[in-house]
Amino acid sequence: MKKRILCFLLSAAMLASVTACSGGGDTSSEGSAPAGSGSNAEASQPADSSEPIELTVLNWGSDIDVKINQDAYARLNEKFPNVTVKDNFVTGTATWSEYITKLLTMIGSGNSPDMVMMAIEGVRQLIDNDVVMPLDDRIEGDEDMQAVLDDISPRLVEALAVDGQTYFFPNSWNSIVLYYNTKMFADAGLEAPPADWDWDTFREYAKKLTTGEDNSEDKVYGYGMSTYSIFMTLFPFSNGTSTLTDDQLGSNLSDPKVAEAFQVINDMIYVDGSMPMPEQGMDAAQLFAAGRLAMAAIGPNSVQNMLTADFTDWDVAYLPIQDKENGSHIFGVTGYGILKDTENPDMCWEVIKELVSPETQEAVASAGVSNPVSRSAFETRALEVPKNWEIFYDAIDQNSRCLPAPINDSEYEEILFRYYYEMMNTQQDVSGVLAKADEELQASFDELK
Fold first, then answer.
1. Model pTM?
2. C-beta contacts of 103-112 below 8 A and 24+ residues apart
3. Which CATH architecture has domain 177-328+408-446?
4. The domain 2-174+332-402 is classified under which CATH number: 3.40.630.30, 1.10.274.10, 3.90.1720.10, 3.40.190.10?
5. Predicted confidence band at 27 (pLDDT cuts at 50, 70, 90)?
């Protein structure tokens, strides 16, 4: 296992020099966690529950997430003061590639945490490196967690499973929906986006909403999206395809439907003039809040920032689906897993139970950073803006699929980013660029065999 991790680290280090944004900071917070709780406490807690135990968690998030976890550990500490949980939070603008590399470096150096919060981008990599344990037996034998599962969309659980086994228990997720400026719609004489619209209607809306001279301060584009992999795959998903094969073990960039999807983006930039040319680090949420985009593909994590800025002239709708039979929306999900090197797997399970408990999930909903996985917790957060806030969770029921996240996710994203910018840097037939990208991406997968 250590040899596989070393090989991964050497590869990831080279990729990080190309793809990394600025590094995130580490924030450690401590709290206490349970020796056991719920209906299976006696079976899962150690024989001597008074023995001091310290557990570590590698985590990702903001100061808000740090506070949510501290409160969770404080609740547990009322019952189990002997267990201390140390949260090693990675905050700031680190990429998931950097985060995964940090974890594998810790494991390779003998400093493995007991638990890790991981996004879908790293799930297959960690399972392939054989560093996390399956959770199926624990889930099946725990009445408390069965009740939690009943309140979670099965798609979120299935996204974190590989080959029929569950290695991470979901704690939050992000749906990508369309934010639109209601004032700009009214000024353009447009009604709210129809639920069943396609690309043709979408492009007409975007053209009508585009105003101002190019490069001027009052320029408004009809549509824009951030330059992250989840957004780059929106249009292929809408067209009933993906950048990867169904088993995520090969490139699917040679699929004509992928070329069709990326061609639409290029045409919106250069033919319609309704999209800005993508730039590295482009943040559509900031451009939308600043009034530079009339429509934007954004997740729920931007709601709170817009409300804090007193920006209320907006609502949300579903993004257009082109292939009505096979097209889908897209989502990302995170979950907690237990590392195989831990000496206290039972205690780790109890910690995870609190981190996905109704109280913690309601705190996630209240914070407005990501969607809680609990549907009932999500429904506790009634908002006046956006008016259609329910679709942030309802999107999971609209034939949504999880974003592509292969074993070689770092290389996949680096290749996708590089060729995406090449496809969009000038008006062109994108199929030639995709042919080069397909060859390079498939070679990356072939090296895994």
1. 0.89
2. 103/58, 104/5, 104/8, 104/9, 104/12, 104/129, 104/131, 105/9, 106/58, 107/5, 107/131, 107/339, 107/341, 108/2, 108/5, 108/6, 108/9, 112/339, 112/341, 112/342
3. 3-Layer(aba) Sandwich (3.40)
4. 3.40.190.10
5. low
